[in-house]
Amino acid sequence: MKGHLQQPLTIAANVGPYTHVVNAGDWNGDGYQDALVRTPTGKIYLWRGTRTGRLARGVSMGFGANIRAITSIGDANADGHPDLAVITQAGNLWLYYGNGKSGRASRKLISSGWQDHSWLRAPGDFNRDKRPDLISLVGDHLLLHKGIKGGFAAPVTLATGWADISSITSVGDFDGDHHADVIARTQRWPLGALQRQRSQHADPRCQPPGLLHRHPLHRLIIDLSERGWPRGQLVSDKSAE
């Protein structure tokens, strides 16, 4: 439902524990959406979508050691298969190219110096240049890494004041305005309604998300507009699971 979260559905049971759960698109090319999970021991499994709407038991993908962060990035090399962006324990950003089956075809080192980046996520083609982009969090700065030929451009700060964000995920165009969105979760903010604070960005219209504090856990949809100015909208104020 546009702009709202519906009741959750169970798609797999007796799973975990996992450090990462990633929407992998149709990784194996069978027409169903799949998921990737990473175990605390560093193994990555492909949970394959089925016609029943549930996920089949995971199969090992044959890699995963030394990976600290992982996100599905779409088809980065235009070969028709979904790919992954990962940050290793050493702080290197790699692209892992899917093979259309249950593993990877190859990988490519993009850059180093990602030790301080957390919440690596792929919001899709953020700036509509037909290249997949990335977002990440460094300190309290939400950063955009625009996809370019062979890698990613220098990061652009989308917003500041994100130090209390405990989780971020990309959700596509959640509210139907043709712009990429992310959902963020926080556990601590001052009392009040949906608040906004002015960003340090040069453009005075840049507004980081305001966060509402009335329960231990809040979810907000952060609308990444065409020019990159996030806008916060509360989508759930239920207590933590």
The averaged pLDDT comes out at 77
Spatial order of strands in the largest sheet? 1-2-3-4
* Distance linking N and C termini: 22 Å
Instruction: Specify the helix fraction band.
Output: under 10%
Low-pLDDT runs: 189-222, 225-241
User: Structural class, from secondary structure content?
Assistant: mainly beta
Query: How many helical elements?
Result: 0
The tally of strands reads 18
Largest β sheet strand count, sense and barrel closure: 4 strands, antiparallel
β content, as a range? 35-45%
Dominant shape? globular
Can you tell me about this structure?
With 241 residues, the chain is an all-beta fold. The chain contains no helices and 18 strands. The strands form five sheets. The chain has a four-stranded antiparallel β-sheet with strand order 1-2-3-4, with no helix packed on it. Strand 12 (147-148) and strand 13 form a beta hairpin. It is globular and about 40 Å long. The two termini are 22 Å apart. Residues 189-222 and 225-241 have low confidence and may be disordered.
Based on the model shown, name its key terms.
single chain; 241 residues; mainly beta; four-stranded antiparallel beta sheet; 41% strand; disordered C terminus
Question: What is the element layout, followed by pairings?
Answer:
Layout lengths: L19 E6 L8 E5 L5 E4 L11 E2 L6 E8 L8 E6 L4 E6 L5 E8 L6 E7 L8 E6 L2 E5 L1 E2 L2 E2 L3 E4 L5 E8 L8 E6 L31 E7 L5 E7 L5
What would a concise description of this structure say?
The chain is mainly beta and 241 residues long. It has strands spanning 20-25, 34-38, 44-47, 59-60, 67-74, 83-88, 93-98, 104-111, 118-124, 133-138, 141-145, 147-148, 151-152, 156-159, 165-172, 181-186, 218-224, 230-236.
